[in-house]
Amino acid sequence: MASVGKIARRTFLIGAAAIAGGVAIGYYYYRKPYPNPLEGELAEGEATFNPYVKVASDNTITVIAPRAEMGQGVSTSLAALVAEELDVGLDRIKVEHGPAAYAYYNSEMLAEGGPFAFYNDGLFAETARGAMGALGKILGFQGTGGSSSIRDGFDKMRQAGAATRHVLVEAAAKKLGVPASELETADATITHKASGKSLTYGEVAVAAAQIEPPAMLKLREKAEWKLLGKPQMRTDMLAKVTGAPIFGVDVTLPDMLHGTVKMSPRFWSKPVKSDLSKAEKMPGVIKIVPLDTTYGHGFGVIAENTWAAFKAADAIEVEWADAEYPADSAAISRALTDALATQGSALRDDGNVDTAFADAPREKIVEADYAVPYLAHACMEPMNATARLKDGVLDIWSPNQMPTITRQLCAGAAGIEQDKVNVHTTFLGGGFGRRGEMDFSIYAALLAKEAGGKPVKVIWTREEDTRHDVYRPAAAGKFQARLGDDGLPVAIDMKIASPSIIASVLRRTFPSLSPVGPDKTIAEGSFDQPYVVPNYRVAAIPAQISVPVGFWRSVGNSYNGFFHEAFMDEIATAGKTDPVELRRKLMTTHPTALKVVEKVAEMSKWGETLPAGKAKGFAFTLSFGSWVGEVVQVADTPAGIRIEKVWIAADVGTAIDPGIIEAQLVSGAIYGLSAAMGQEITFADGMVEQSNFHDFDAMRIFQCPTFEVAILENAKKMGGVGEVATPPAIPALANAVFALTGKRIRSLPLSKEVSFA
Amino acid sequence: MSKCTKRKLRGRLWTTTKGIPMHLIVDGKPIDIEADPEMPLLWALRDLAGKTGPKFGCGIAACGACTVHMDGTPVRSCILPLREVQGEITTIEGISTDGKLHPVQQAWLEEQVAQCGYCQAGQIMSAVALLDEIDNPSDEDIDNAMGGNLCRCGTYPRIRAAIKKAAALKTAGI
């Protein structure tokens, strides 16, 4: 059911009522699970055709790209999907995040949430995928994550474009008195060639919005694509090179106050004793507000400017209660090791591993223990949100990845109904999973309650951000392989222990819910890899450590990629097999994987003799539906190990924008290399020890290698791109360091044992 | 506090909520504000002068997101107290002229550098200063000038390419 803006809506009220409930096309129209959220907010003369497209009478075309733009280029690619079918250049499309709405559910993000490998297309796995996807629809779960946006939007957005074009053409046909089949569309204009007459989309938009599209519309074949499959200029680039106020921290409103938070440095702990008097008396301070939330306890400061708020937060004197979890990194490490001694859930169990190891001669066994630390997301834009609670309505401007849950939890915090909350999603200065959380929005909502109807912009300090993250979990793994006489593994046994992300997320968002089933994120990247080994078991063990953990770019793959692929390198070394040759032999039933391995080996001239002091490492990870092989070349220099070059081959099935995909693959690899080289979050006395970029740094330009990227499209299903290059980058570097130095480093960051230039 | 118009800091005048009156020149325009002289320039620009182009990233000059120019020299505005501000301030919002992008911005656009974009105002300001000093920077010059600007999206390869393109654009007078 299409809609038109104010005046037009009044004019066509009868018509609109008459056609309500009509039949429509496509994903959205077919079932129409939720109302079109754009209907309530049209400008005069503007028309909407579905939740994704608005056309104004001046021919301004707005596409709602309802996934968070955090750098991954999703707004450009989602708009391109619509533009392709709508026959409009991207340069004339305005792209917006749109409101929080169930209509923008993401079914793909949950579809891969089950404990199945991506290549498993058996009946059970497929049925579960369908059910999980339907759950996304039922929950109206609007989220950005799991590298799912384009997979989720591929049909929806193109159908939205096609349906809109169809009704615009119908309306033009009526107006011109010619058959629709004689009309052509290009550049937002409908032309009747024979008569030379033409109409812009804007001129027929209002009339078109009254027309129901047919039940079925054919989408264009790949061969016909004009925009898709080719690099596009990003729609957000101009704003980003001119310093435009597009981020959460840039929100500026009349009478706006400023604020910050000071939360307990020990998670979940409450203040035992506090003295606010000094802070309250500081210049520019308006109010100090105690905060008690499911995310944690502490204080918020409302002030006249951010600097005054920061200084006051510093001056709050508090004694916090002790931590409920192991208080330092050594104790956390012991808890992980203890967990490894238990059974866990086998997410993969091929053959009979116990039997295969029972009679194994000692010299045929490869054994290793691996560990990784907690990691912070360290988005460039510190956590922040702006909120205003006025006349019973909460408006929240939030750089977030989860608008519908943000709306729900902020409504709870403000004590109002969800339909009284408007979430305005700004651009995100980095997300990486951190902004799928609701803490920064909830805190702003709580401070808005105390601000007398004025808006409050609440910005965290970098120190607060670093010390109150939801961390990439620390993890430990125990690995065993039995080699056959040919040097290939006949049995592999993997156990991975880590705190459960799902359990941690539920505790802070929906504490009344309990997690069900095993948390596959613990072993994803290990249990679901396209290797064939006769006896192959991968078990996930949730460790009970309640430091908050969350989704960090590539989630469990971020450490399982390291565990699995560094251990494969150990197997190759022990069996005297070349690492690439090992994959060739173990991946024979997965041609997509094989082609990726072959491609990256060819690009990097794998096997070619290198000059002394240089070495290469290889790794492969299938994650989020994309098959990615990487080779890292390192060099020994007087200043330390230098990462010289990285080759990436990625099979994404269908490449919507090769320019953006290339950028994401490089970005993902750098994100992984940064972590592998030097990042760790450690604990002392229940508190995070790191605080800012001086002790939690990332790769700098002078450390950055050159990249060569190949994008393949052999896979039958489309894969994601935002996270997929992160997992193999880490083991590829560790394996290169081994090749260079002979040091097998099984614990990250690598900087604990070698130094980098 | 060279641009300060009120020098009589009697008693605890600067600790009142309003602070003391000061005069800045930002992007070629005079701006009068009242602030604590200890307030870093960044917050005066963002909260008091309405210049949100420079970004807050770390507050300790470790990431470069807040980079602006003071009389043409790049400075980290997050640690520069207002009392030490001497000279004209230029932000990302003041480098294009007559509606035409600065060659560095143009190169950034053509090379499609930005991802999340948050650090890019600082990156661009460092690059502008580099090219003001060196017409044709080597890779080493780029490493030295840009090492203080952190990017978590990993746009470094494109930043490097864009600086080289900007050098060519500048030489060609574009």
TrEMBL record, chain A:
Gene3D superfamilies: Aldehyde oxidase/xanthine dehydrogenase, a/b hammerhead (3.90.1170.50), Aldehyde oxidase/xanthine dehydrogenase, molybdopterin binding domain (3.30.365.10). The chain crosses the membrane at residues 12-30. InterPro entries: Ald_Oxase/Xan_DH_a/b, Ald_Oxase/Xan_DH_a/b_sf, AldOxase/xan_DH_MoCoBD1, AldOxase/xan_DH_MoCoBD2, AldOxase/xan_DH_Mopterin-bd_sf, N-heterocyclic_Hydroxylase, OxRdtase_Mopterin-bd_su_IorB. One of its GO terms (molecular function) is oxidoreductase activity. Residues 242-324 form the Aldehyde oxidase/xanthine dehydrogenase a/b hammerhead domain. Signal peptide: none annotated. Keywords: Membrane, Transmembrane, Transmembrane helix. This is Xanthine dehydrogenase family protein molybdopterin-binding subunit.
